[in-house]
Fold this protein.
Amino acid sequence: MSLYKRLHTAQGEGEAATGAATRDPVLDELRQRIHHVLIDDLGPVLYDNRLSEDELRKKVHEQLQAALAQERAPLSAADRAQLIQDVADDILGYGPIDKLLRDDDVTEIMVNGPNLTFAERKGKLAKDPAVTFVDEMHLRRIIDKIVAQVGRRIDESQPLCDARLPDGSRVNAVIPPLSVGGPFLTIRKFAKDPLQIDDLIRFGTLNAHTARFLQACIVGKLNVVVAGGTGTGKTTALNVLSSFIPSDERIVTIEDAKELQLHQEHVLSLESRPANVEGKGEVTIRDLVKNSLRMRPDRIVVGECRAGEALDMLQAMNTGHDGSLTTVHANNPRDTLSRLETLVLMSGFDLPITAIRQQISSAVDLIVQLSRLRDGTRRITHVTEIQGMEGDVITLQDIFLFDFGAGVDEQGRYRGNLKAVGVRPKFAEKLTDMGIRLGPEVFQPDGGQQRARG
């Protein structure tokens, strides 16, 4: 049977059985063979920085046509075009996931081995049967390519890796022996144009009164912790809050993998570094936080506190670096305090809990809590002030709360939004002293709803 017939027989049987197109092993073998031929023929040309992207793409397509001509495979025009696209994606891009990376509706890509890929669209996960890799080695090559672009490595001795794509999208890869069933790849995409506060208001993440309040807090140099679970939008919220920092201030950002996209001119971005092959050369977030204090920052923005750097961050907030920002994993404002206590204890210092709580209460002014709701939307559910200590307990006061009592609409989407609880925060006087005035309407319980109706 010819390649053409075998291909279409296999596709027809697969579509009849599953309703989705299946891969043909003969076509995959041809694709893999041509891929290796191109790598051998082009070699160093693929890494020649003097070539523009268009010139490199032209050379790859010329070599592809030549390699296909030598194979003399009886392909239809559609199959030939698809084969060329697949091989070009493998060499110039990221293989089968390239189309998901180009799809603006996709926010997260999860590759669970060579034959199973999920994509998140509008907060909902769904399997994408059209995205499959030839085999585990094919997926491994794509992972190696992503990791190598940011100067990191992944192998059997170090089978976990965090990296990023050129556009800032966050990448996590796990390979055997830790992953069972093939390499795993998770990509959290970032929008080409960073979201602004108006976008979050339009999405329903917060309302106009809360946005105005948070802007005043950032300009007024309050220390803010953005808290939430995985995938709740903490980094996006941190990026939007950071955009409120005045352009005449010196900002130092510290992250595991660079994700923040600040538009201010005076921004210094620091990125941690893992150990090399000999286990040396590691630079941790904590090292960077300590070093940032010697860089004369007006603001320090830590992408996420995961360990002992929380103590150094609190120390910085308490020693003149007002207006600093960070994120932590926590499910509600009270849990955020417990989480910070635990992270400080991970610093290795045997500090009494009371001393840690005093540090937290004097350093942090505001907690912005995000949650991912059942309808797939990401919302700010609490904006909470840290008021101080009462005995051994840190006292909290909610300023804005999400109104879950409004119920859901016909599509299952929550109708509620953030509502002021009617309490004016203690730090309002500090903002007033800095010339930042918030009118009483911001704190009126029905202010957010009136704005929404308007």
